[in-house]
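Q: I have two molecules that I believe assemble together. Could you output structure tokens for the complex as a whole instead of separate predictions?
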Amino acid sequence: MEDTRKEIVTLLRQKKYRELKTVLEDLFPVDIAEILEELTGEECIILFRLLYKEQAAEVFSYLGVQERKQIVSAISKDLLSYILSELYFDDKIDFLEEMPANFVRGVLAAASPEERGQLNQFLNFPENSAGSLMTIEYVDLKQQMTAREAMARIKRVGLDKETIYTCYVVDNTQRLEGILSLRQLVLADEEQRIGDLMHTEIVSVEAHDDQEAVAELFKKYDLIAIPVVDAEQRMIGIITIDDIVDIIEKENTEDFQKMAAMTPSEQPYLDTGVLRLARGRIVWLLVLMISATFTGAIITKYEALLSSAVALAAFIPMLMDSGGNAGSQSSTLIIRGMALGEIGLRDWARVLWKELRVGLIAGILLALVNFARMALLGHNELAVCMSVAVTLLLTVVVAKLVGGLLPIGAKALRLDPAIMAGPLITTIVDAFSLVIYFGIASVLVLNK
Amino acid sequence: MEDTRKEIVTLLRQKKYRELKTVLEDLFPVDIAEILEELTGEECIILFRLLYKEQAAEVFSYLGVQERKQIVSAISKDLLSYILSELYFDDKIDFLEEMPANFVRGVLAAASPEERGQLNQFLNFPENSAGSLMTIEYVDLKQQMTAREAMARIKRVGLDKETIYTCYVVDNTQRLEGILSLRQLVLADEEQRIGDLMHTEIVSVEAHDDQEAVAELFKKYDLIAIPVVDAEQRMIGIITIDDIVDIIEKENTEDFQKMAAMTPSEQPYLDTGVLRLARGRIVWLLVLMISATFTGAIITKYEALLSSAVALAAFIPMLMDSGGNAGSQSSTLIIRGMALGEIGLRDWARVLWKELRVGLIAGILLALVNFARMALLGHNELAVCMSVAVTLLLTVVVAKLVGGLLPIGAKALRLDPAIMAGPLITTIVDAFSLVIYFGIASVLVLNK
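A: Yes, here they are, computed for all two components at once.
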């Protein structure tokens, strides 16, 4: 692939367009799209123009926003309307959503009244809804058809349909009555009735359902497509697995970003401007900086203790880091478990009990290792060693409990568990850890 | 669903088995499996025995390890061998991998010599390889067949095949020559030859390829199945999209766990024992605790400074937390971008430049806000306010640079970027931040 890319760039710069055309013919559209995304504006357009029409349409469906905008402004009206006509309906909607309003108006004006209505309806679905993912290209059958008639219908209309592997049986008002996989249809006797072949237990979604819930259904039932219906069970479209794989990755990216204290963004990192990147990070950095005032206030309160035993200060970072790490281990496991549906609200007591024991094991071990290290290697007073060890044990246990329960608590309050992760837990655990540390040190170090 | 569950449990406890059977008949196998997983051992077995044979086999394929082991030990030999014969080949392999060796030997002994060979081969593929995911159930066609003959073959053999939506055209030595979707076959003229219809550009994998790489191909080419071939391009099996969706989630879970400094584990949280949970966390907690010795040593070195200006200690937690948060924001974005293939090694300079600017913007803003807060609200000396502000600015910039570049560096050294995340970066940034802080404070606070 890397070699092909280099060959293409070389041919392009040598303006050997005829040879270039031959090389391009044998490539997968998605690979051509990848190469286009690495070229500069002008080269990108030259290369795109060398593609034959059908290929151009497919390559276009894989391109990023920047490249699409460039190409749209440079190609002929004819090619553009050909590409638009070849795009699957859901890809067309995605594309229109990215383009400026006057371009969209142009496309709507050129569409047939029926298509215009559909485009308008789909453009108005909220961004993360099932409706925004769906396509109107599917095969619908009627109960009274035979398998033979159904196959004939698929042959007639199938070329335009994004997926023909699941067929939808509807009545005259488009109400969904059953589903039938192409597999079953192919394997059926030709004279059997669709009404007898179809399944009537249907997993479906409504257009305003959240896309994350739709992805859950795909995972649970191993689907390759799901029908989208309105409140009266009338078919309005289908969602296919390829879009769901993207959604799963997007939802995961969102969780990663939230757990690292950022405002989630769907845009790829390299395409995001510096100001926008900064904006997504500053809010949480400010919130967390100001919440660290607590820990500062605690230290200030114990300034007298600290000046009389300044050695205590050396262990503050270690205590805080260990607490933070212990807490984010637990919260990550719980947040992930909840996202995958393995842990629910009613499991809070089991989580509490597990984390308590894990915290005790980890805390005792860390405290012992650290006590040994400090007593043997450092030149610390026994009172300081004891204070650090006891604080470490208690900090790890509390961090595990807070890390385990805070995400569940957040979910119970209908807040996002991922936002409760790492940083917020760190602040709580930090404050707790300092209070314990100075509390114990007051007794052990001052009164020794 | 919740109501159905309650109804079933009630009927079960009232021993109304006949009614129970009727209720169960209308449920999806995956939903029955979910209910079974919530029941106690004995009830689980009673309920399972009430299922009719075909349903039992399907429900079984959705169950967890614990439930499967329970059921296997309680059901009749006949039902067990029926279930085994109904399981798809890849599900059967998964199941055998979970069971104790003597059970596996029994199954192998009962299998036909041909199947025994296949089972042995598949049981020996490494855990995360393409081979461990694949199934041998696919439709193979020959070039010289017509579309009509191909359809007839699918009808004859198709019932046993996990997916018939992609057919594989092989020669007499099983070498893969082309692929053909059922969709194309259905839409084709009955007399057309398979050799003319098939595609010869094939995306395939080898059995020892890593499952993550396989998932990448599915995402890139929007596949629903991929052929697995040996070094001579001979077909040995296929991998289907439903297994890939699981792999994507598993890989994401692994990244979440590594980034929170844990040894990754595939087992669901609630099914994992306390000792095992503790083991996965303690190693990193110990490593990070001991690496925090650096920060301790730095503070000890500046003990004299600290005792003469103990107010400085109050800001150590805030500085360290801000640095840690700023760094993990950057590392998360970069690690995720690399996992999704959006950021590569050659992008290091772009990342550096972006993070430098984001770091400056965020750092200046945080430093200003904090300076204002300290100067206006606290009763701090100007020299302390200045030291904190300058340290904050430098810490945020360095944290962003380290967070952005460390994962890329790890990848360049063929290490796992996710392991380099959060905690390790925190340790580096903490140490840097303290050195700067005390360095500046030595000048500003002591020499004032």
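A: One point stands out. Chain A has a mean pLDDT of 85.
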